[in-house]
Amino acid sequence: MVVLAHTAPFVLSSLTENPMNKAFRFVSTRPLLGCVSFVFAMVLGTASALAHAQLIKCSPSDKAELKEPPTRVEFWFNELLEDGFNSVDVILATDLAAKHPTNFAKGQPKVDSADRTHLKVGLSELKPGRYIVRYRVLSRDGHSAPGQLTFRVLQAKP
Q: Do residues 105 and 121 touch, judged by C-beta distance below 8 A?
C-alpha cells in the first residue's frame, strides 16, 4: 500500500504533464467529432431528400360541403411535379365497396405548365353525395406521394 501511495501521484502527474498525452487526447477526439458530424449531416441531409411532395391546398378543400358540384379538382403542392405520372380518382363514398366503383375524374390529371406545383383534373357531372378523392403524385425528385381527401355535394334545395 505504501508503494501505491508513493507511485500513484507520480503516475497521475506523468499522465497529465506529458505533452504526448495531451496530443493523444486531441487526436483521439478528432475521429469521434468527425463521426458525430457525419451522422448529423446524414440525418439532416437525408430528411429533406426523403421528403415527399406535400399538399398545400386543394379545391374543393378537404371536408368541404358544396351547394354546387365542382367541375374539376385542383391541387397545389410544395414541390414541382412531373407530368404524366400522376393519378386522381374521385369516387362516390357509397360506391367505395363496389368491385369497380365509378371514377368521376375525366381523363388524366395535368400539371399546369405555368405553375408546376399545380395539378388539375376535370370531373364528370356529380350528383349529391360524399366523394372520396384519392391522388398519387410524382415530384421532380422522383418521389411518389399518395393522399386522400373528401368533399360533399349537398342536395339542391327547391
A: yes
**Is the domain 55-153 a CATH 2.60.40.1220 member?**
yes
Please name the residues in contact with 113: beta carbons below 8 A apart, sequence gap of 6 or more: none
Report whether 137 contacts 125 (CB < 8 A).
no
Tens of pLDDT, residues 103-114? 999 999 999 999
- Can you tell me which residue has the cell 501511495? 5
Which residues, including other chains, have CB under 8 Å from residue 52's CB and lie 6 or more apart?
79, 139, 143, 144, 145
Residues 83 and 115: beta-carbon distance below 8 Å: no
Per-residue pLDDT tens for 36-77? Answer: 555 555 544 444 445 689 999 999 999 999 999 999 999 999
Query: Which helix (H) or strand (E) element contains residue 59?
Result: strand 55-59
Rounded CA-CA distance 100/85 in Å is: 22
Q: Which amino acid is at 73?
A: V
Distance CA 13, CA 16 (A): 5
Q: Tally Cβ neighbours within 10 Å of residue 73.
A: 23
Per the CB < 8 A criterion, the answer to whether 138 and 109 are in contact is no
